[in-house]
Amino acid sequence: TRILCVTMGWIRSSAVASVTIDGNPTTIISAPVVTSGTTNIGTAIAYLKYGIGTSATITITMATSANTVMNFEVHSVYSGSSTIQDTLAISSTAIADISGSLDVTASGGSIAIAVSETSSNPFTWSGISEHQDRAAGGTLFRFSDAHENSIINTATITISADTGVSDVKSLTSISFAPF
After folding, report:
1. Distances (CA, A) of 138 to 13, 41, 143, 169
2. pLDDT band, residue 109 (cuts 50/70/90)
3. What is the DSSP letter of 37?
4. pTM: predicted TM-score of the whole model, two decimal places
5. How far apart are CA 23 and CA 45, in angstroms?
């Protein structure tokens, strides 16, 4: 058994309304959408306990879709149940290092997504291992996600995503209890 997680980061929209995987509704954890001028930035993670298979149809519906620019990644978490251990969901209009605490359990898993209004400065992660980091929507914003499988010790970790530039950022992270 595994958990499919969809990490999402976007600009120019209000929020994710729903996410389905092969028509099955997911649970969505999201940071508050933050607005800077006329730009909205947000992050969310949708997840669903999902059996075997190598493909699925993922449908993401935004609350408002006018001019939405989004990036998303799909991850499999094998070392956790679909029971959430903890969540972290924060946004800010002027910060370089967006961070917070997340409780994790030994043998569980965790995942995080961060976006930044400045596309040219890569994120530096601590407390969790970066999966990928890239300019998104051409050069409209920065998209980065991270994850950990098979966490060794139960602890409260500090997850930090830093670009070195003070701007608009959003971070969402969840940890799963072990199977």
Report:
1. 17, 15, 11, 18
2. confident
3. T
4. 0.92
5. 17
